[in-house]
Design a protein that fits this description.
two-stranded antiparallel sheet, 5-stranded mixed barrel, 43% strand, mainly beta, 145 residues
């Protein structure tokens, strides 16, 4: 059984890409998530401590994350939770942490860029005529196979 997690927050660092000896890409970064709620006046306020989550991405998605994840960017990450345990070299204590092994990393566009796709859609409405003939050629009464 696998533990799944989806987290949305700000990247705490740029995505750092490394490669295994066999050439598989791995990207690591952290995500900060602070729970928020509206107070009595309707303003958003912090509602608890900030959770810092380590994220690790593998394969082609890792290379993409390394190019796109920048410190401070709003990201949504989903994947499975891996529990890590190790010995602290200085104290000898057993330490534990979790890592989100990501399947999907989505970097949200900055707020000033969110309106651009809507403007482009208005310039090229869905109702425009296609530039080329569709599948099947000119003979509409003939099956395409």
């Amino acid at each position: 059984m696998s533990n799944s997690m989806i987290i949305k927050g700000r990247a705490g660092s740029d995505g750092e890409v490394r490669f295994t000896p066999s050439g598989v890409a791995s990207c690591s970064f952290s995500v900060a998530d602070t729970p928020r709620k509206k107070d009595q006046s309707g303003q958003w306020v912090d509602a608890g401590p900030t959770l810092w989550q380590r994220v690790q991405v593998w394969g082609p998605e890792a290379e993409k994350a390394g190019e796109e994840v920048r410190k401070g960017a709003l990201v949504t990450v989903s994947g499975r939770v891996r529990a890590d345990e190790w010995q602290d070299k200085q104290t000898g204590e057993t330490r534990k942490s979790t890592t989100l092994v990501a399947d999907v990393v989505y970097v949200h566009p900055p707020k000033d860029q969110q309106a651009r796709p809507q403007q482009q859609a208005q310039q090229d409405p869905w109702g425009s005529q296609p530039q080329q003939q569709g599948f099947g050629g000119d003979n509409d009464d003939q099956p395409p196979f």
